[in-house]
Write a structure and sequence with these properties.
By secondary structure, the chain is α/β, with parallel strands linked by helices. The protein is about 40% helix and about 15% strand. The chain is built from 13 helices and 10 strands. The strands form 2 sheets. Strands 1-2-3-4-5-7-8 form a 7-stranded parallel β-sheet. A 3-stranded antiparallel β-sheet has the order 6-10-9, with no helix packed on it. α8 (about 200-210) packs across α13. The structure holds flavin mononucleotide.
């Protein structure tokens, strides 16, 4: 979870027998190296580092910001005491350099969002490491299997954060975990990791029953003290119900699920599409940063899945332990 993970969270999960994962898409190579060293100081267990596909870093030179969107962003800048709206600068990657760090550091599992390229899979395998990637449709899962990914994450539409969609229209790729996982399991030759709306033992066992080899949980760990999210986001999550999350493209230019707020409401009310990803994200970056400093939820990107109402505020190690114990108990009760 880019922007929400810390080395402490990653290590707590890996030390507890899970595979802790660091969302590293926005990290410059030197920052990334330092984060890996911090994780290694806290755990000697395998862990995962996640990148975004390099294709998602490219700015569209032909894209222009509509007048209404510009006026709205300028108003926000004024309201928050920010200066002029400046030209957007790159926010991700460069993925090639990030990947070189991960390979040099021998990160055991490297994952991608928004697809993965064949030469990256080959480079990771040549280094003796594992590669996984998210899929939101059967077509994407089959594509990743054919590329040689070691496992496929089936990301259902309940999931918090960006939809990992990389083939076709995202609205067609809004497939719930319940429907997506068994069909991906039937279609691919590698283990499937179920993601989206899994918050407790009930979700874990349901996904096992659907054929998943493992589950990936994001939102469930946002309530942990080790997660790196601002307090205002944490407070909003605690009070939220599933109907308060929405998939929107206005925050970053790509579809992502998060808690609805003033920024999303205002931007969605405008005519015209947002800037393509990652321009829209870069343009709204100053607003998000200031809002986080001010504890203002109006302008934050508060990614969250539909399972938000089941959030527990426990230290990560305790949450993981509770999930394991509760899953064992539930399984025993189910087969009784
Ligand atoms: C705050 C947040 C940030 C996320 N950032 C990333 C990311 O950087 N890379 C990625 O592959 N997935 C990211 N995701 C999606 C997760 O990998 C996963 O698909 C999702 O959390 C699963 O659904 P759940 O949130 O209902 O557990 C993020 C999710 C959240 C909630």
């Amino acid at each position: 979870m880019a922007g929400a993970c810390t080395p402490a969270l990653v290590a707590a999960i890996s030390n507890g027998g899970g595979l802790g994962s660091l969302g590293a898409a926005p990290m410059k190579p030197d920052v990334l190296r330092a984060q890996i060293q911090k994780i290694r100081a806290l755990t000697d267990r395998p862990f995962n580092i996640n990148l975004f596909a390099p294709a998602s870093e490219q700015f569209d030179p032909a894209a222009t910001l509509g007048d209404a969107a510009r006026a709205l962003l300028e108003n926000y800048h004024q309201e928050l005491g920010l200066g002029e709206l400046t030209s957007p600068a790159g926010i991700y990657g460069p993925a090639e350099e990030q990947l070189a760090v991960l390979i040099a550091e021998q990160v055991p599992v490297i994952s991608f969002h928004f697809g993965v390229e064949a030469h990256h899979v080959a480079a990771i395998h040549a280094a003796g490491l594992k590669v996984i990637c998210s899929a939101t449709t059967l077509e994407e899962a089959i594509h990743l299997d054919a590329l040689g990914c070691d496992a496929v994450i089936a990301q259902g539409s309940e999931a918090g954060g960006h939809r990992g969609t990389f083939i076709g229209d995202y609205q067609r790729a809004m497939i719930g975990t319940m429907a997506l996982v068994p069909q991906v399991v039937d279609a691919v030759s590698v283990p499937v990791i179920a993601a989206g709306g899994i918050m407790d033992a009930r979700g874990i066992l349901a996904c096992k029953a659907l054929g998943a080899g493992a589950v990936q949980m994001g939102t469930a760990f946002l309530g942990c003290p080790e997660s790196g999210i601002p307090n205002v986001w944490r407070e909003q999550l605690k009070a939220a119900s599933p109907s308060q999350t929405a998939v929107t493209t206005v925050m970053s230019g790509k579809p992502a699920r998060g808690l609805a707020n003033r920024y999303i409401q205002d931007m969605e009310a405008l005519e015209g599409a947002p800037m393509p990803y990652p321009l829209q994200y870069a343009l709204s970056g100053a607003i998000r940063k200031k809002a986080a400093e001010q504890g203002n939820s109006d302008f934050l990107a508060m990614w969250s899945g539909q399972g938000v109402g089941m959030l527990r505020e426990l230290p990560a190690a305790e949450l993981l332990k509770a999930l394991v114990t509760e899953t064992q108990t539930l399984l025993a009760n189910l087969v009784d």
